[in-house]
Write a structure and sequence with these properties.
By secondary structure, this protein is an all-alpha fold. It has one domain. It is 60% helix and 0% strand. It starts with a helix and ends in a 13-residue tail after the last helix. The model has no long low-confidence stretch (mean pLDDT 90).
């Protein structure tokens, strides 16, 4: 996968971020995000899991080079 692919997936996570009032949905979203990030890390040793997880949050600048 390319960096552009990771960015698109992070943007998709932003789009499906649940309401903060629905804690169960938020927990499921976070668990899914972490599972996807672990799979990417297993596939690419240079992948930075924390950076990806931060990029999945609404409002994050997905294409930012810094600011995990």
């Amino acid at each position: 996968m390319t960096k552009k692919d990771y960015e698109r997936i992070a943007e998709a996570f932003q789009d499906c971020y649940p309401s903060l009032t629905n804690m169960e949905a938020l927990a499921q979203w976070a668990a899914c995000r972490a599972a996807v990030a672990r799979a990417f890390k297993a596939d690419n040793y240079r992948f930075v899991q924390g950076r990806f997880e931060a990029a999945c949050l609404p409002g994050a600048n997905v294409r930012a080079r810094h600011g995990y």
